[in-house]
Amino acid sequence: MSRRALLALVVLLVAAAIALETTQVAAQFGIPRIPGIPGFGRSEPQENPMDMFRAFEDMDEPQEVEVGRSVAAAVGARYKLFRDAALTKYVAMVGNTVAAASDRPDLRYYFAVLDTPEPEALAAPGGFVFISKGALDVMRDEATLAGVLGHEIGHIALKHHNETIKDQRKKALAMFGVNIGLGFVPGPAGMFTPVMSLVGDGIAEGVLKGFSRSEEMASDKVGFQYAARAGYDPAGLGEFLSALAAKKADAGVAKFMSTHPGIDDRLQEQTKMQQARTGSGKREAERFAKAMGR
């Protein structure tokens, strides 16, 4: 048998093995039901496992959303959701207003509030945005919320997750190669389940660890612009960062800064952008206070 024919046979055997393991893979990638939050229901993996061979390519939007749902499940496993439908609806209203002014206005966005006193804000691929009750407690008005959500939307609009996704696919491809080298020796749950799990888990871990300093700066810039385009005073993000900088000794704030690096440089850039801006925008302090129950 020629080498090409042998390779073709190997690929067919691999595809057959993957098909037999659909149930196990789906179970690992499924999302537990989160009532009241659209888009956070159980999701089955839509991407063909053989697409690992496209490790160097960017994902299309449906694939990005599917990965985002898996990452959202990991976030939901790490944090409880704050079960306040009115507050969640309010955050989504502000978030969608800002998202409509972003560079990806046609993407459907989902917003949720995390039930933790620690300040936290996270963005997952495909339009999933989380903000913690602790972060909301630091804010004084809607313009601040718009600025922070604009920053997270910026990560999605700029596709900052792409490199992490590519890296995880490369790792999965390497593990796939090891499995071939070991003669297709199956593990307890099937030999491809760990490979697929590695991709989803790795991306989720990357989101929870945060982005690079340069990515944070880039999201600050577009987040400022998105908030301004949506009619808000874009000073809100800088004010939020200033409020956190004043609480550096707090353990929760220190954790936030470890996953959102370069706060001093970011504050300087926000100040420069604000000074270069003419005009003002809405603050909506009263509406924010009412939504927060203050």
Description:
With 294 residues, the protein is mainly alpha-helical. The chain has one domain. Helix content is 60%, strand content 5%. A hairpin with a 3-residue loop joins strand 2 and strand 3. Helix 2 runs parallel beside helix 8 and helix 6 crosses helix 9. The longest helix is centred in the middle third of the chain and has 20 residues. The chain is globular and about 70 Å long. The chain starts with a helix and ends with a helix.
Number of domains: 1
**Secondary-structure content class:** mainly alpha
Which runs of at least 5 residues are low in confidence (pLDDT < 50)?
A: 6-53, 178-197
Which sheet architecture does the biggest sheet show?
A: 3 strands, mixed
Helix-strand string = HHHHEEEHHHHHHHHH
How many individual β-strands? 3
Give me the side-by-side strand order of the main sheet: 1-3-2
User: Could you tell me how far the N terminus lies from the C terminus, measured between alpha carbons in angstroms?
Assistant: 75 Å
Give the overall silhouette. Answer: globular
Summed up, the helix count is 13
